Amino acid sequence: MLPSSCFRPLAQTRQMQLPSLQSVHVLVVGDVMLDRYWRGPARRVSPEAPVPVIDVEQVDERPGGAANVALNVASLGARVTLVGAVGEDTTGDVLEARLRAAGVECRFLRVADWQTALKLRVVSQNQQLLRADFERPLPTDHSAALLEQYVALLPAATVVVLQDYDKGVLAHPAAFIAHARAAGVPVIVDPKHKPFSCYAGADVLKPNMQEFTAAFGASLDESDLALRARTACNDLDLNAMVITRGARGMSVIERSGGVTHLPALPAEVYDVTGAGDTAAAALAVTRSLGWEPPACARVANVASGLAVGKSGTAAVTGPELARALAGGRGSDRGILSQQALLDAVTAARTGGARIVFTNGCFDILHAGHVAYLEEARARGDRLIVAVNDDDSVRRLKGLGRPVNPLERRQRVLAGLASVDWVTSFADDTPEALLAALRPDVLVKGGDYAADGVVGADLVRSYGGSVAVLSLVDDCSTTAIVDRIQSER
User: Fold this and answer.
1) Does residue 140 or residue 380 have the better pLDDT?
2) How many CB atoms are located within 10 Å of the residue 470 CB?
């Protein structure tokens, strides 16, 4: 197990700025597809089967897969060339037209008697009701032609992205990586189901958590995850692995030994489709600038947070990302696992920060919560909010609670300006967490007596302080729930 000192949350709270990307030329290779959306209201049930009938009012077609990565690169303001395969069909024509209109240079291999991959999604009232995939694997006899096209384009590229969806374009990724290494061009790989050994020699490998677990098994904790990833970096000759973890953000593990945790940034999650493509594009652009993997991942984390706030596969623009980086809250804030939180607290203390801790269920966030969290934050430099998980809320509050599941409660709290870090705990009390974190100040709301605050004796024992803050009248989650039920 790696010692805790090996972990370093990215504690940069300073603003980041992207320089001009005119010198960046990203060469994207991978499986391209067209994402088609049928949208409309569902006002009735079919008489033929118990399914909704959608009155299709809008048809939307967007580049998907490797094409979405290329679209995101172009939207960020960099030059991009896309190598892939499409059929001699209307779908391929539409895909190429959409990309060229956005500034993507397409170098497509047109394959006879084969259809361009198409994913059809039926959406009503912002809910995806159905997805239908129209696709067949690319015949293997086209691999040589794709590689030849790629090698001819490589000298003009500053970075390569291999976007592998296991549809056949990257049947043999090792050859693409070998040519790039020989040319001195870094390679970012977004893998799928292949063994990770197929991508040996890449610069950065970007699996999601499901892909990482499939390759190495479930990790016991953060240290175990980092150890497995670092071992893979050494065995596969990777400079770094960036693991995207959904609501838990990203983890960057470098072969040199550094481990950086990036919490998920507060965001209204509208649609996660294509967020990984956006992250791959941001990683490629920033790595091409010579940035180190943790800094690249910070930009990718912000970019993917913007992407999930959009409907369907959607590109993030350069101005959008610039505004988010310049005015954002900083990538060391948000929802953290307990291990990552411990590392973040250690780093903050190194800079002299005073740590404040509070905890609760926070089932329905109300004005009383907001007021007391603002007051708590004023007691120090960083505020931790520890949230009871769903099972512990049920034990404490009874059946029917929580009203909102843990992930939603955490996201709402993370969106408050007064809150720095949000974590969860499964016990009925946070005493074990307090013992590990040793906050400078423990606070609770005004409905507690000072002597009744759980963990107060522990915090005082090492010199910390305990505060019971003011209570906003007529604000209680239980009272709100009771009022709603009585009115019903």
Assistant:
1) 380
2) 11
- In DSSP terms, 277 is beta-bridged to none
**pTM of the model as a whole:** 0.66
Residue at a domain's end among 330, 345, 366 = 330
Write the CB contacts of 22 (distance below 8 Å, at least 6 apart in sequence): 77, 78, 79
Give residue-wise pLDDT tens across range 182-218. 999 999 999 988 999 999 999 999 999 999 999 988 8
Is the distance from CB of 244 to CB of 304 less than 8 angstroms?
yes
Please indicate, yes or no, if residue 259 is contained in any of the structural domains: yes
* Contacts of the segment 128-135: beta carbons below 8 A, 24+ positions apart: 128/271, 129/42, 129/52, 129/54, 135/33, 135/167
Least confident of 295-304, 312-321, 347-356: 312-321
Q: Categorise residue 480: left if φ over 0, alpha if ψ from -120 to 50, beta otherwise.
A: alpha
385: containing domain: 353-487
Q: Which of 277, 332, 363, 390 is catalytic?
A: 277
Facing residues of 160 across strands? 27, 187
In a domain, 81, yes or no: yes
- How many domains are contained in the chain? 2
Q: Is 473 a catalytic residue?
A: no
**Given the DSSP bridges, would you call strands 441-444 and 355-360 parallel, antiparallel or unpaired?**
parallel
Mean pLDDT score of the chain:
85
pLDDT > 90: what percent of the chain? Answer: 53
